[in-house]
Amino acid sequence: MNLCGIMPRIWMKMTRKLIARVAGGDLGHPLEELYDRYAARLHGLGLRLLGDPGLAEELVQETFVRLWQSADRYDPERGSVPSFVFTIARRLAIDLWRRPSSKPFTELGEADREPDRDPDDVVDQLLVGLNVRDALTSLPEGQREVLELLYLQDLTQRQVAERVGVPLGTVKTRAFYGLRSLKEALRQRDVDV
Amino acid sequence: MSMSEPASPHVEVAAYLLGKLEPEEAERFEAHLDGCADCQRHLEELGGLPAVLAQAAPATPVPEGLRARTLTAVRERAAEAGPAAGAEPVAEPEEAGAAEAPVPLRRAWWRRRWVLVAVAAALVVALAVPGALLVFGGGGGEVTRLSLVAAEGAQGRGQVTITRTSAGRSFDVRIEGLGPPAAGSLYELWAVSPRDTMERPQRVSLGTFTVGADGGAHLTAFTAAPADQFPLVGVTLEPVDGNPARTGPRVLVPGPPG
After folding, report:
1. ipTM for the predicted complex
2. How many CB atoms lie within 10 A of CB A117?
3. In A55, A186, B63, B77, which residue has its Cα 20 to 30 A from B244's Cα atom?
4. Does B75 touch chain A (CB under 8 A)?
């Protein structure tokens, strides 16, 4: 279901309800819905920060276990649901990141490790990129495709029209609606634009 | 959707913001913009997006099965906890002070299952191991060549030729440029899994060695440890203390492909 058009306020209210239902012990649909919203970003954070697929999976699983454990303490007055989820994940990720034993034997995945940098800054920066990616992924396919080709792959509008096989006017329209949808999707993810 | 599409040139605001209009198109749009309140509003609302868009992380797929494993992990923990589910004392995320203490990570049940999953995963990983060149030898034995490069802060390099036989794998290793090992230490050669960490070792010792005055060594090692599980090779510097586990720093690690 595409929820991009739903106003962020309603979206946030729905998300708070999911947390409340998990806190009440409903580990069916509400938990699945929360997983679907946050797992890709949590996994991306784990992969980029920790450089190990196993640790990335551990981060996702343990974040949801802790989300369930602390769901009844969620207070909307103190922050949004995404900030609640990512605060849990951030603490877990930094703990794993600092642990010397997380360092893989191979050089794989160590590109993002910069020991002199504050782990909080590293996580902040990674989360922005992951939120933007997640927002893009949530757009209708046609809009996402046009925005990515235009901006991230730097094609001209005509080249995009040829690549996608649609009229030039459709590319322009999709770009316009794509940007509007992206703005809403980013607001749902606590990214101010 | 077409019913609600605004007529051009209003939609040009997107291409304008993304820098996709030709100079003369941009001039035309700017002339239109002067007299169009809607476009001015859109420009203001959407103006911050290109800078944000540029920060998008590359797409990375979430592993198949992680959803089921995660949901099961939570549900099993809840079942273990009983009717007071969710009432376990954990620090509230917003409490800044709680962030100071390292969060202990439990070795959950799913971690044990990973060991089984890891075997299958290693089959996939082995296809993309850096530094490995797979050669099918004329004698029927499959030959893999690996290069070794100096780990961070170390020196030296090496070449490993691995020949599979019916009894296991034979490693012909040529090392160059290593300094003499510190007193009471030896170099140790390992067959390593890509998932190896200090806490969760997944490596098999292939023996210890030292180097000549020229910093070089030529040695042969053998193991029947599965190639799909331990496809990589590395060298560490280990104290001669009778402890068979890896405790010392990495010296040589798998090099780039080719």
Report:
1. 0.82
2. 11
3. A55
4. yes
